[in-house]
Amino acid sequence: MVLDRGTPAGAERTRLFVYNGGFLTNKRIRRILSLAGYDIRLGLPQQSDAVGVWGNSPTAYRGMHIAKKHNTSILRVEDAFLRSLHPGRGGEAQLGLLLDQTGLHFDPETPSDLETLLSSHPLDDTALLNRARGAIERLKELHLSKYSAFDLDVQPPEPGYVLVIDQTQGDAAVTASGGDHARFREMLVIAQEENPGMRVLIKAHPETLAGHREGYFSDQDQSDRVSVLRKPISPWSLLDGAVGVYTLSSQMGFEAILAGHKPRVFGHPFYSGWGLTQDENPIPRRQRNLTRAQLFAAAMLLYPTWYDPYRDQLCELEIVLDTLEAQTRAWRQDHLGWTASGMRLWKRRHLQQMFGRHQKVRFFSAAPTVSKRPHMVWASQARGIEDATRVEDGFLRSRGLGAELVPPVSLVTDDLGIYYDPTQPSRLEELIAKREALRPDQEQRVERMVGQLLSKGLSKYNTGGISLSLPEGHRVLVPGQVEDDASILLGTGEVRTNMGLLSAARDAHPDAVLIYKPHPDVEAGLREGKIDAHKLADVVAENTDPTALLAQVDELWTMTSLTGFEALLRGVKVTTLGAPFYAGWGLTTDLGTVPARRGARSSLMGLIHATLIDYPRYMDPVTGQPCPVEIVVERLSSGYIAHPSPLNRILSKLQGIFATYAHLWR
């Protein structure tokens, strides 16, 4: 299903006549152009129309000739600087286009729209430059480049080398800068002469590594000092270890600037001439000195036309970064393929959708003894299995209960432990400690997301329910739990039952209004933990919406319930008697024993960033693609969400009847 929002009503549109088959066969190009206000046409243009040409492609001359003959404007179209996981020659759709009405960003013969921005735009808006700085840091942190399908487990060479960047033979950006074999070899010689005794690494182009096009360098250029690097290593990792960078016109020269280098440039790329490069052949008309943030703001925020594949609309760069964050994480975890064990039959289809996009997951009843693939196991079935990634439901799971076999839209993967088990470290603990301090852009993202969660009243299961009007007084919410849940068995001490929790809360608050909220799985008769709470609680909130309760209470007492985390999101004071993942960071009153290793003092925004952005994997139920958390928030609130199949609904009713044997399907 594609949500077609189109161009705003009343917006001026332009007929765009094209003479390159790619404009007609590539759906993503057609869609981005349409959203940008261009209607693709065949035939001959009128003076008020425009002619679209693809860069300096072999067919560009057709459009140039017709535009000149009919006195029409030209729209030059190119892929944006963040394109996709893989090169476009593999068929993957792009996430943005460069639409230039005056020139080509890589061709110095005529100033492009980008060059005009760089030379004449004030680039002094504080908000714009702050966005640029935040986006630069995200590119580095997430290891994003024009093509981002590289495995971060592949280690870069030992630092202390000179990096020479290869490009593909005949590429338009190379030709426009006067590049040829002789020019590239001259660059290699100069790199050695200017850095006597230093190792020289030649970085092969991603399209060369993929077998699409040859580069200018080969194994014949290797020597005792020079080697060709053919591993798909993150450009950011390579730049971190380099002491110098040499390029003709590669986009990696732009990334080198962002990484803090002043690259030696032998051609005329868009980023040369602004005081941030050492230019072999300067362009006289480029006289302005810019900062890195200003260069980035023009090239990445103002110039491209970015596309959001989930909402099917044009967007800002930050949305593209969110998209690539989700897609690259999925590829980097999944591209080798998975083996899996401990996965119930009803879960396998959804696990295949989540983790099997690049290679199908191979399911086994027990962990295979020999496999080149990484292994995953459902967290509750992981005992005795070494070196496995544990999988569990995410914190924004679904509209409906997992015990009712409603499929999840989020899952967490943990290669160290699992978030609900405080007896051993987990990846979530590491992420929370890492987010002890957030950048401004990260703070803003979390604040926007939390605002959406609160305004839409979202929680883990989103089952809805009635809203109660609670008695006046100091209101304390006590959420019940499933008493045989792993978080209770592993994460509690003296108090480990719902009645024990309720008694402790009443002892601490003899005069408070105590509200007991049974766990929805227990209410549905699917799990253990039912108690008679009326003796101690003033209100037993059965079949109620937990988010509506949180909006009315002053504090919450819990063993390990996720409702405690949801209370923190809403500014509710939380007391824990166990060791849930959110305890021990200075944000809760902890009466139980929490691990001493939780020494970081995370902010609430940092805890939320780690828990809802960094840790889970999300899948968009509309497009079936890996997606950022914001898309799942929208789907959960709008109703575009998965529901259990008829078979699962029958099974869920049967398991309610045979709840004692629930271990057979969980």
| Molecular shape | elongated
Unreliable residue runs: 1-6, 648-666
**Class from helix and strand fractions:** alpha/beta
The count of helical stretches stands at 23
Total number of beta strands: 26
Estimated radius of gyration: 29 Å
List keywords for this structure.
disordered N terminus; 23 helices; disordered C terminus; seven-stranded mixed sheet; 666 residues; alpha/beta
Short description:
With 666 residues, the protein is α/β, with parallel strands linked by helices. A hairpin with a 6-residue loop joins strand 25 and strand 26 (626-627). The radius of gyration is 29 Å and the shape is elongated.
Commentary on this structure:
The protein is of the alpha/beta class and 666 residues long. 33% of the residues lie in helices and 16% in strands. It has 23 helices and 26 strands. A seven-stranded mixed β-sheet has the order 2-1-3-4-5-12-13, with helices on both faces. Strands 15-14-16-17-18-25-26 form a seven-stranded mixed β-sheet. A six-stranded parallel β-sheet has the order 8-7-6-9-10-11, with helices on both faces. α14 packs across α21 and α15 packs parallel to α22. The chain is elongated, with a radius of gyration of 29 Å. It starts with 13 loop residues before the first strand and ends in a 9-residue tail after the last helix. The N terminus and C terminus are likely disordered.
